[in-house]
Every structure is written in C-alpha cells, then in structure tokens.
Amino acid sequence: MLRLTISAAGLAMAAVVAFAPAATADDGWGGADCGQVPVAGCDVSAGGGGGHNGGAVHLPGTGGDDDSAVGPDYSGCRWDKVDDYSEPGQPTTGGGWYLLTCLPDFQDGPFWVADAAPAPVSPRVLAETARNRLSLPRPSILASPAQNQLVNLPTWLWVDRGAWVPVSVTASVPGVSVTATARPTAVTWSMGDGTTVTCNGPGDPLLGGDPRAASPTCGHTFRRASERYPVTATIHWSVSWAGAGTGGTFPELTTSTTTAFRVVEIQALGAR
What we know:
By secondary structure, the protein is mostly beta strands. The protein folds into 2 domains: 4-114, no CATH class; 123-269, Immunoglobulin-like. It is built from 1 helix and 17 strands. Strands 10, 12, 13, 14, 16 and 17 form a 6-stranded mixed sheet that branches. A 5-stranded mixed sheet has the order 1-8-7-6-3, with no helix packed on it. The chain is rod-shaped and about 100 Å long. Residues 1-25 form the signal peptide.
C-alpha cells in the first residue's frame, strides 16, 4: 500500500482528487471529486497504467510527476481518519493518518496529514473587528428656550453629556489584544433654515443670566419664524486603535439625531 506524508504547506484549498476520463475499463483507476476532507485541502492527482501498484499520488507544489490516470468513473471519495495506525520513524503528534477511499473500490493510504497552523491574525484585522463592534450613542438635542424658539433671540444648543464620552471596545485572540476607541470631537448642527453651526464641544445649557446673551460655546439665532424647522445634531467621532505594540487610526464615525424646532416672533424684541 502506497503511503505519503502530506505537509501543511500543501493544504490550502478544499481537496479534489482528480482522475482523467475513462480510456479503458481495465486500467485500474477512475475519476472522482472528493469534497469531504479532514484538513484544509489539497489537490491530488493519481497516476496509473497497470493498476494501483504502478501509480503515484502527487500533491501539486510538493514535487513529483503529474501523471494522468485512466479507468472507470468513480462516483466519490472521502478521507477516513485512522486512529490506531502508526509507522516507525513517522510523527505521532501534529497531525493524523488518513485513508483516501473512492467509490466503488479504490482506496489508498494511509497518508500523514500535518495539522495546519492557524494563520496569525494581524493587529489591524483585530482593530477592524473592534471598530465594527463600537456602539456609539446618538445625541439628545437640548436647547434654551426649552419650548418655542424666538426670532432674533439667541438659542443655546447642547447635547447631553452622556453622549460626550469616549467609547472603547477590545478584540482579542490568544496572544494578541487590540482596543479601538472613539472620541467625540465636534457637533455639527443643521438648523433647518439653511445655516450650519459647528461646535467644538457638546455645548452648554443656559443656567440663569441674561436670556438675550448668546451662548459662548454653541448657539444660533433664528431670523425668521417657522412652525417647523428640522434640526439635526451630528456628533463626529475620531477613531484610533492600539495594541500588540502598534496602533493607528480609522476614518471618523458620526451619529445623528433630528428633531423639529418651532420658531415664533415677538415683535417687542426687535432686530439686534
């Protein structure tokens, strides 16, 4: 029985055992498509002429002749692990012995199939995984006055402080851990009247003082009345990652909320 040691380097794709179409009914080997494999694959072609003992098993990329075989059409193949098989001088760990069986009556092996080491996961890939798991809060829109806004009276704008905190997620595999962190950097306000306001912070509430004073951090003054101004607050998040002795950045993320402001006019205020 022919035996072959299969290295992990040759196990890159799903196994296909390919035999040439039938030429004569008496040459021994046949065609088969093996879809069940115990490992991460290999291409195997069998050489023949004169039956099994005259053939060879060849794994592309591991050397050997690329012989073509002829024979009856086999309907399928499978790999069967042999748990109680061993050979002097052959490894006993890091893989296993397998028989190649093709219907109706072809079998070869056992073959030693080395365990393929898992491909290393790069820190960047882990960072992308962590970034995709970030759950960033949407802003709650707050304003003063709390109800109707007034023409020519400054509106103070801010988002709730709970949405203005860094958010981090860590992704890990054995031996490697990477953390992605999103930090709020600015809020863009689309005021619904054709103007946009960018604030480099969450803004501040009006706590006493002159209601005619403009917000020092984030605000807007409406010049025309409207029953419904659609107002959108968008938080911009910078995203960085660090781990495994390296790090980097991702394009910014955003979260948004939209509401409606009613703006009324009080003539006594006049234009400022």
